[in-house]
Amino acid sequence: MLSEExxxxxxxxxxxxxxxxxxFAMQWDEEKHFPVDTxxxxxxxxxxxxxxxxxxxxxxxxxxxxxLIFEALSGGCTSTAAYMTIHNMASWMIDSFGNTAxxxxxxxxxxxxxxxxxxxxxxxxxxxxxGAMRSKAVRDGDHYVLNGSKAFISGSGVSDIYVAMxxxxxxxxxxxxxxxxxxIVEKGTPGLSFGANEKKMGWNNQPTxxxxxxxxRVSVENRIGAEGEGFKFAMMGxxxxxxxxxxxxxxxxxxxxxxxLDYAKTREQFGQSIAAFQAIQFKLADMATDxxxxxxxxxxxxxxxxxxxxxxxxxxxxxxxxxxxxCFNVANEALQIHGGYGYLQDYEVxxxxxxxxxxxxxxxxxxxMRVIIARELLK
Length: 379
Ligand SMILES: Cc1cc2nc3c(=O)[nH]c(=O)nc-3n(C[C@H](O)[C@H](O)[C@H](O)COP(=O)(O)OP(=O)(O)OC[C@H]3O[C@@H](n4cnc5c(N)ncnc54)[C@H](O)[C@@H]3O)c2cc1C
Hints:
The protein is an alpha+beta fold. Helix content is 52%, strand content 15%. It has helices spanning 4-31, 36-44, 63-74, 78-97, 100-112, 230-266, 278-306, 312-337, 349-357, 366-378; strands at 117-120, 136-140, 143-154, 161-167, 180-186, 192-194, 208-219, 223-224, 268-269, 272-273.
């Protein structure tokens, strides 16, 4: 199914994951270390702008290629790979919907990762119902004055660039998703501040915090697209983002499975390897089957997005729902096969389970994926 070029890209990502991510993932998780230098090394391989145009340093690859890359990287460190997906998503929004000046100003730094990007949609009062956001941008001459806050923002405080969806317009036009606009807010802008780093179950090696706007003046030149287009851009970003997150689930669960398979062959109980028990064999067989199904579904959805087919949003939602649920279960079963050792940090599977759990929640919860799928079925 893969071209020679795709196999080469996949090999490059796998080698990087094995050498530069896997040996450090446990320590980064424990020390809550955000590995910016490693992210920049990854950018050197073209992974910070995978599906961005080549004009300003993007790699010009497809969503399918991105799925292969994130699957491979996440086998080394789920959270680092997942952060790279968010950076790609936010940068892609500037590449796709920004004007010539915005693209020339920001993309060279973003594709080399001298600039790190965050995606700011969620607010304390609006998560799944993101269109109900309350943060506001009020026009004042050639600036907007932003007030409000964004919750759970990955990279908050460390990132240089915040691609933020904020409500604009007057009282009538500003309601619902159609009143949302998209802004590039640079770190250092007066009135931009950050909340405390959240204490989390997983994804510990990247910061998650509020992004706060208090009379934060942003130039009109930093608005992406026209007023009112922001929500549409944010949702289009998420189609690809959901596939990337699913790819991170797949690569992680594959690694957990590989570890469980090795462990089952070497761990002995009742005078034989536990792999000799049919209960364990069936578990492994089901896990391998589930991974295969998840992989096929992800790749197919990525192809659909690459081809711009009308069903791309539904397929992305289906893949995100199925792959992240399936892969969480596979990783959890891998932990079970390790018995008590699976619960210890040394064997790493517990980190994988912790990291994968949030993939069922963010970029639209898996309940919201069902809402999207059902909406299309019933229309
Ligand atoms: C570690 C982490 C990193 C994140 N990073 C980012 C980021 O970088 N940028 C960003 O913008 N956001 C980010 N998020 C936010 C994430 O996208 C939201 O948490 C998610 O969309 C859910 O919103 P909520 O937490 O407000 O839950 P709620 O929307 O309050 O949902 C609560 C529960 O109700 C269910 N529910 C809600 N509506 C429906 C419905 N219509 N039908 C059925 N069930 C429903 C949900 O599925 C969920 O189970 C991150 C979250 C986490 C945990």
